[in-house]
Amino acid sequence: MWVAIFFATALGIGTLAYVAWAARAVEHGAAWWPFVVGYPFAYLAFPLFVTVLWMYFGRRWRSARPAALELDLMGRVRLFCHEFASLARAPKMALYAWLMPDPPPAPAALPVLLLHGVGCNAAVWTTLRRHLDAQGLGPVYALSYGPPFAAIETFAVQVAAKIAAIERATGATQVVIVAHSMGGLVARAYLRAYGPAHVRRLVSIGTPYAGSRHAWLMSGKPLAQMRPGSAYLHRLATPDASERAVPMVSIWSWHDSMVTPQTSSRLGPDDIVLSGIAHNALLGDPQVLAIVAEQIRRARGDGPATTEAVGAG
Predict the structure, then answer these.
(1) How many domains does the chain have?
(2) 305 SS3 class
(3) Where residue 79 sits, what CATH number does that domain have?
(4) Strand partners, 199
(5) Paired strand residues for 140
(6) DSSP of 109-161, one letter per residue?
(7) Domain-embedded: residue 292
(8) How far is the C-alpha of 264 from the C-alpha of 44, rounded, in Å?
(9) Which domain, by its residues, includes 1?
(10) Is residue 313, in this structure, part of any structural domain at all?
(11) What residues contact residue 128 under an 8 Å CB cut-off, 6+ apart?
(12) How far, in Å, CA of 207 to CA of 230, rounded?
């Protein structure tokens, strides 16, 4: 709710300010049509700035990676454009309740629960949910936790309540958790606090298990917890028995633009390592969608996951 209110308010205030400025200019003799044409460009200016900022630090603080994975000019352009397009869609989070409602209650063997990253809500999962629904891999639920800058442990309590609600609605006894960014840390906090009994598998996407230097660019309790060397991450460094009881797979990219260094997402021998995909673009990348679907099938017992990693873990 908090994130939705923020994006709705920001978009509304920005639009009103632009309209007021345009109206004043037209009153003083300016033509009206350049302001109509210019509105999309004015809107895109902020996600463009954010993309440039995050990717600048993503490169500056990058991990040393295999020379074979360095991108040529066109590869860098694609990397930037896909990440920019992902960030430009962020205002859809104002409509998360409409875009990501819970499925109607019905019996199900193994529901899927999606956990988002910091400063986001469930609307970031629209593409993955459509992909999973189309393949009959559901039902798919998503949690929007908050307030946005509460401690990761607070979000874990909300995960526990959501899993209990999903089990009541479906009759299931376990879920598969798919998590992006901070969501992977939230899932691990849940396992430590509540145990492994209700989770069949954890699939994380771009989660900074050893922290991210980008967290120093923002403030808030969860950001402080995600800073490299924090006391929270020190306690998390060695998985406890509850975590070891759940198969965990980390999907990450050598070109992640917000997890720095990128190798912070390393979790174990089952990592699936990609390249040429930035942080937010991971959520809509066809290769990532296919890998997640395979991992869910594996959790369901529908067959082994066979997707090969790209690069070295």
Answers:
(1) 1
(2) coil
(3) 3.40.50.1820
(4) 175
(5) 112
(6) SS-EEEE--TT--GGGGHHHHHHHHHTT---EEEE--SSTTS-HHHHHHHHHH
(7) yes
(8) 30
(9) 1-305
(10) no
(11) 114, 140, 178, 283, 284, 289, 292
(12) 16
Q: How far apart are CA 277 and CA 287, in angstroms?
A: 10
Distance from C-alpha of 121 to C-alpha of 23, rounded to nearest angstrom: 34
HSE, CB side, 13 Å, CA atoms: give it for residue 292.
Answer: 34
End-to-end CA distance of the chain: 37
Strand 175-180 to 140-143 pairing: unpaired
pLDDT score at 313: 43
CB 272 within 8 A of CB 250: yes
Contact 9, 1 (CB under 8 A): no
pLDDT, tens only, 208-265: 999 999 999 998 999 999 999 999 999 888 888 888 899 999 999 999 999 999 999 9
Q: Token digits for 167? A: 């089990």
Closest CA to 176 of 247, 239, 116: 247
CB-based contacts of 207, cutoff 8 Å, min separation 6? 179, 180, 181, 182, 183, 184, 185, 250, 252, 259, 265, 267
CA distance 188 to 112: 16
Q: Does 58 map to a domain? A: yes
Give the model confidence (pLDDT) of 7-31 as tens digits.
788 888 988 998 999 999 998 889 9
Asked if residues 155 and 189 have their Cβ atoms less than 8 Å apart, the reply is yes
Strand, coil or helix: what is 35? helix
Q: What are the tens digits of pLDDT across the range 83-127?
A: 999 999 888 888 888 999 999 999 999 999 999 999 899 999 999
Contact between 283 and 180 under an 8 Å Cβ cutoff? The reply is yes
The pLDDT-based confidence of 302 (bands split at 50, 70, 90) is low
Whether residue 270 lies inside any domain: the answer is yes
